[in-house]
Design goal:
The structure holds two protein chains of two kinds.
Chain A (H helix, E strand, L loop, with lengths): L1 H30 L5 H5 L2 E2 L4 E2 L2 H32 L4 H16 L2 H16 L3 H26 L2 H9 L4 H12 L1 H16 L3 H4 L21 H9 L5 H37 L1
Antiparallel strand pairs in A: 1-2
Helix pairs in contact in A: 1-12, 3-6, 3-9, 4-6, 5-6, 6-9, 7-8, 9-12, 11-12
Chain B lengths: L7 E10 L2 E11 L4 E5 L6 H8 L9 E9 L2 E2 L7 H7 E4 L10 H5 L14 H11 L3 H4 L12 H13 L5 E5 L7 H14 L4 E5 L3 H7 L2 E6 L2 E2 L5 E2 L6 H6 L1
Parallel strand pairs in B: 3-8, 3-9, 6-7, 7-8
Antiparallel strand pairs in B: 1-2, 1-4, 4-5, 9-10, 9-11
Helix pairs in contact in B: 4-6, 6-7
The chains are: A mainly alpha, B alpha/beta.
Chain lengths: ~280, ~250
């Protein structure tokens, strides 16, 4: 019986790893031939069938940077409020956690719709609307990670600060944030990796599919790698579209991989710090 | 340090965690510029008493105090008293030392960053003085920039005490500060308590009766969240000899 379960678990693990390897290999094998210096640095032409993905990459970076700028202070503030100011109200704290979990599991197209209705009303279809929408979407990821990091800080550190007459603000500034820096940064990078891979939420809030370069104002749309792939995939019969789509997919995967690697590296520093 | 060192007074104080009364009918004055040992079995409420006097339990769910806890005649649980302001006057040393993951020097001066009116040029000398006070200077003077968590537990406790003393608290609450230390560190802390007996109001929680006899002017017994004797047993014995034997 036990042997059968072990065989089954091994098979499931193999399937999961096999699928991942298949997706990555497909992206590398099909995307690599499309990638060269021109592809990375040139503007796309003829609806993406020719040229490169320079402005799409730039647009993706603008959107995730904007999402970080908007989402980070909110995530940090709410995580601090939850861990440091709601200590005598565990029920309220739990309610916050449930709310964030619910937000985290909401379909991303819903974020897009809400972003379009709320932020779109103010800024139109623009990179700013997209950044706000992505910020709301990645908020639970960042916030949960930060809460985890703050709660992992031994209580003795806070009490040592209190015994020195430090107020709550001073303890946050001088003890909590320096000690939990890596935990908070991990949350940020995990959130950014999620934002970098997101398509549905920005599909009708931030992007247009062609003719966009660098946004010159807050109300200008941006073009992104995700939506570029989406457009090219619809032209699947054209081999040039398929090749460029795979090339863009590989660049996007690399970007996400870099962000996740940064998060994992930072997390490894976190464990090292705790052990110290 | 101010000339007026405050006394600590409890007037019919009860301490609760939710509906559970953990300290009851506390009614006693700890005189200014004195060293008092709080003595009693584990779980008798000694640590809770010290934490109540420094408002360390403010963030604990369900913690509340009834009655009056007075420092310098002011009820520290009144709305007018800010906890951090109170703790600038009432320093607490814990049983297990907690040094920050910083250098030895940075640990000593850590609390000064958040105080007004500190002459920055005088800080290195202040740090040296307090390290000498706790007899740590000779051991660390050549490695002040080294990582404080690498010190031995006894050295860490002396460092924590130096970090507290540099802020010149008028009241010092010490929760079994020498319970797990090497003899050298324990002796250094005891010696410091003796030297500061007339400078501060010190409350020392200890399980070590000999230590209490050596360094404290009086001893107070606690059991089941209550003070057992009133007025406090004066040291040296014989007044409380029977109780001393009991514990």
């Amino acid at each position: 019986m036990e042997k059968g379960i072990l065989v089954m678990l091994r098979a499931f693990t193999l399937i999961a790893c096999g699928l991942l390897v298949f997706v990555l290999s497909a992206a590398i094998v099909r995307g690599l031939p499309a990638i060269d210096a021109v592809f990375l640095t040139a503007e796309s032409k003829n609806f993406g069938l020719e040229g490169g993905i320079f402005y799409q990459t730039l647009g993706t970076l603008i959107l995730i940077s904007g999402a970080a700028a908007v989402g980070l202070p909110i995530a940090l503030g709410s995580a601090l409020f939850q861990t440091e100011y709601l200590r005598r109200a565990p029920r309220l704290k739990k309610s916050f956690r449930v709310l964030m979990d619910a937000l985290n599991s909401a379909p991303t197209i819903v974020f897009g719709l809400v972003g379009y209705l709320v932020f779109g009303a103010a800024f139109g279809v623009s990179w700013l609307t997209g950044a706000f929408t992505l910020a709301v979407m990645i908020l639970p990821t960042m916030q949960s990670s930060m809460v985890e990091a703050f709660e992992a800080l031994p209580e003795t550190y806070r009490e040592a600060g209190k015994s020195l007459g430090m107020g709550r603000g001073a303890i946050i500034r001088s003890i909590l944030l320096p000690q939990c820096f890596y935990g908070a940064a991990t949350g940020l990078f995990l959130g950014l990796a999620r934002a970098a891979g997101e398509t549905a939420a920005i599909l009708f809030t931030a992007t247009t599919f062609s003719g966009v370069t660098i946004p010159e104002s807050a109300s200008d749309p941006a073009t992104t790698l995700q939506t570029h792939i989406f457009t090219l995939a619809q032209e699947g019969l054209d081999p040039r579209a398929a090749e460029n789509a795979w090339g863009a997919a590989l660049v996007l995967l690399t970007l996400v991989f870099v962000l996740l690697s940064a998060a994992m590296w930072i997390r490894s520093r976190l464990h090292w710090e705790s052990a110290a | 340090m101010s000339d007026q060192i405050p006394a600590v007074e409890l007037r019919i104080a009860h301490v609760f965690f939710k509906n559970h009364r953990v300290l009851e009918d506390l009614n006693r004055q700890f005189p200014s510029r004195s060293v008092t040992a709080i003595f009693g079995p584990s779980g008798s409420g000694k640590t809770t008493l010290l934490r109540t006097l420094s408002r360390m339990n403010d963030d604990v769910e369900g913690f509340r105090v009834e009655g009056r806890v007075l420092i310098d005649g002011e009820n520290i649980y009144s709305d007018a008293v800010e906890a951090s302001r109170l703790r600038q006057k009432v320093g607490m040393l814990f049983q297990k030392p907690c040094v920050f993951p910083k250098s030895i020097y940075q640990n000593v001066v850590f609390g000064l960053r958040h105080r007004d009116g500190i002459d920055r040029k005088a800080v290195p000398e202040m740090a040296e003085n307090v390290l000498r006070e706790v007899r740590l200077w000779d051991e660390v003077k050549d490695r002040l920039n080294e990582w404080a968590p690498n010190l031995s537990q006894g050295q860490q406790q002396r460092l924590a005490l130096a970090r507290l003393l540099i802020l010149e608290p008028e009241i010092l609450l010490m929760d079994e500060p020498t319970s797990s230390l090497d003899p050298r560190s324990a002796e250094a802390i005891e010696s410091l308590i003796e030297r500061h007996a007339k400078l501060r109001t010190i409350l020392l929680v200890t399980h070590n009766l000999e230590q209490a006899r050596r360094v404290c002017g009086e001893i107070v017994f606690m059991d089941c969240g209550r003070f057992l004797e009133s007025p406090p047993v004066q040291l040296p014995p014989p007044a409380g000899e029977e109780l001393l034997k009991k514990y």
